[in-house]
Design a protein that fits this description.
heterodimer; A: 183 residues; mainly alpha; Rna Polymerase Sigma Factor, Chain: A; Arc Repressor Mutant, subunit A; 2 domains; B: 108 residues
């Protein structure tokens, strides 16, 4: 099952093969959960949205074009599910982390430093508009092209480029020294 | 690498990935697969239960409705019949004159 490509798995899943659907979940869960978490800061909300998206994808498999990559098709559903959940539940935005507090204090060991940097990054992401956040995560984390991101988010390719650019710039501004790199 | 760069930034990507990385991958996969099975199974069970209960309820309802309709129709027919000359014919102490009863039908 693991050797089958995405389209073949999708075709099997569409015909009722639950093992094939499970293989797709296994394959795309990390991406889906990261993208959902880029929209919803709360990890539990993000996982709920990712699960909703997988269930929605299962019912929409007949709309999937096997000639195209499965990932962007699925992630579009994930992004919509996460955005819907955010709107529907009026998800409480976590109070932006005090970046000074998160960044300072003592001489943290490597693990603590990584954890703090992760918190700073999540807080920094929360400061960026949703679409911009998605764009930079899809580009720099998931490795999608601007064209794919444009299609996935339903925006022109130039806008996708611009969103990635502005997100990167804002992240650099917010993270400052934590990034330790000059723009 | 500048923000204008059109290639993914591996360092930023790694940082973001680490920040967004979910835990318990196997648990999540199991949860989604279970949700699919749960979604499928109850549908069938519920339909099966509803099929049995529904058929019984439908039969009962049909019988009850049939009886009610029959009763109301019969009562109305008797009420209609028990007017005028026919009533007198039905309740008369003596044997009714058939011509009185039959002659009133074409007028309805």
């Amino acid at each position: 099952m693991k050797q089958l490509d995405d389209a073949a798995l999708a075709a099997r899943a569409r015909s009722g093969d639950r093992a094939a659907f499970g293989a797709l979940v296994e394959r795309f869960a990390p991406q889906a959960r990261r993208v959902a978490r880029a929209v919803l800061e709360d990890p539990d909300d993000a996982d709920d949205a990712a699960q909703d998206a997988f269930l929605a994808a299962l019912t929409k498999l007949d709309q999937y074009d096997p000639g195209r990559p499965f990932g962007p098709w699925l992630l579009r559903i994930v992004a919509n599910a996460a955005a819907d959940r955010r709107r529907r539940r009026k998800v409480r935005r976590t109070e932006p982390l005090d970046l000074e507090l998160a960044g300072g204090g003592g001489m943290p060991d490597a693990t603590t430093e990584r954890r703090l940097l992760g918190e700073r990054l999540r807080a920094a992401l929360a400061e960026i508009p949703e679409r911009r956040r998605l764009a930079v995560v899809l580009f720099d984390v998931e490795g999608y092209s601007h064209a794919e991101i444009a299609e996935l988010l339903g925006i022109p390719e130039g806008t996708a480029r611009s969103e990635v650019f502005h997100a990167r710039r804002r992240l650099r501004e917010i993270l400052g020294d934590a990034w330790r790199r000059e723009p | 690498m500048t923000p204008f760069e059109h290639r993914p930034d591996p360092e930023l990507g790694a940082l973001l990935r680490a920040a967004l990385e979910p835990s318990d991958h196997a648990g999540f996969v199991a949860r989604v697969v279970a949700a699919v099975e749960h979604r499928d199974a109850p549908t069938v069970d519920v339909l099966a239960r509803w099929a049995r209960v529904g058929i019984a309820a439908a039969v009962l309802a049909a019988v009850a409705a049939g009886l009610a309709l029959h009763r109301s129709t019969s009562a109305a027919a008797v009420d209609d019949a028990l007017t005028g000359a026919e009533a007198g014919a039905v309740f008369a102490a003596r044997t009714p004159d058939a011509s009185v009863v039959l002659a009133s039908w074409p007028e309805r």
